[in-house]
Specification:
11 helices, about 45% helix, elongated, transcription regulation
């Protein structure tokens, strides 16, 4: 596979897509209808230095991939990419795509709180099969904000322009958070099956006599077994159960620790080592934080 084409500026992206120069060097909104690639031009892969938010309405039956997964754009979906993520295109003519794209360079957010907090929106690192499916009403809300941003970008800059653009971007991200929350709640059947699989994975991991060989499962390894990205899994679990993947793992770890403390004569250090802790102090700290009692006092309660 050829190396992805590196796009270092929004102006460069416009040029690659055969469009006019952007009205602003650090933020741009464009409709796919404005893309003017040469006839039969096919993009294979891109990597950019900026954030991308896109709503794809139709891809003429073709597929688009980022990360390791493909997504069939038969329905309108919204996806988010952070800087340095690779987009792979498989036999897809951008001239056949309908929808919009919003691109924002990190420098545009410099000196604004959003410049830091935008990294906390986990969906910028979701896999393509975890894209946001919008209802007609939700799509209308998104498009209204996009049109606001588009108007501000195209208007003459004044003292309020930058603040208004950042405020609208923040509003768009907040709505996206809300719609993902709805998506987590409405996919109950699929999520129930996923939670069962998660419990089975944890049962297998912590049901062994010793975790020395296999080790405590990581968030990454569990996500891979469930064919999900780590952030998507944790966000889904937080909505469904109130706890992240890491907290679920810690619950099982504490349950195993209680079992060993109450049914064996292993020392605290031996138990800590068996549970994968390099230092007993780390085990002691986690156990007390999660149970409000030290391992020693917990064991003493059974004697």
């Amino acid at each position: 596979m050829n190396a992805p084409e590196r796009i270092t500026s929004i102006a460069m992206l416009h040029k690659v897509l055969g469009m006019e120069r952007p009205a602003h060097p650090l933020i741009s909104v464009f409709d796919f209808n404005s893309v003017r690639l040469k006839e039969q031009t096919i993009l294979r892969s891109l990597i950019t230095d900026f954030y991308i938010i896109a709503l794809k309405k139709d891809c003429a039956g073709n597929k688009f991939r980022y990360g390791q997964d493909y997504y069939d754009f038969e329905q309108g979906i919204m996806y988010f990419l952070a800087p340095q993520q690779v987009m792979h295109f498989t036999d897809i003519l951008l001239n056949d795509v309908e929808g919009f794209v919003l691109v924002v360079h990190p420098d545009f957010l410099h000196s604004y709180g959003l410049g830091t907090t935008i990294r906390e929106y986990g969906y910028f690192s979701y896999s393509s099969n975890e894209a946001l499916n919008l209802s007609e009403k939700e799509e209308g809300a998104v498009m209204a904000i996009i049109h606001n941003i588009e108007r501000e970008v195209d208007a003459n800059m004044d003292a309020f322009t930058h603040d208004l653009l950042v405020s609208n971007l923040q509003l768009l991200l907040t709505y996206s958070d809300r719609f993902y929350h709805r998506q987590f709640l409405t996919s109950r059947k699929a999520n129930s099956a996923l939670l069962n699989k998660l419990e089975n994975i944890l049962d297998t991991a912590f049901g062994t006599a010793s975790l020395l060989e296999s080790g405590v499962p990581s968030v990454q390894s569990i996500a891979e077994q469930l064919n999900l990205s780590p952030n998507y899994l944790s966000d889904l679990l937080r909505v469904q159960t109130g706890q992240t993947t890491q907290q679920h793992i810690q619950d099982r770890l504490i349950a195993k620790a209680k079992e060993l403390l109450s049914t064996t004569t292993l020392s605290i250090s031996e138990i800590a080592y068996q549970l994968g802790f390099e230092h007993p102090q780390s085990f002691h700290r986690l156990f007390k934080n999660r149970t409000s009692i030290s391992p020693v006092k917990f064991r003493a309660s059974f004697n």
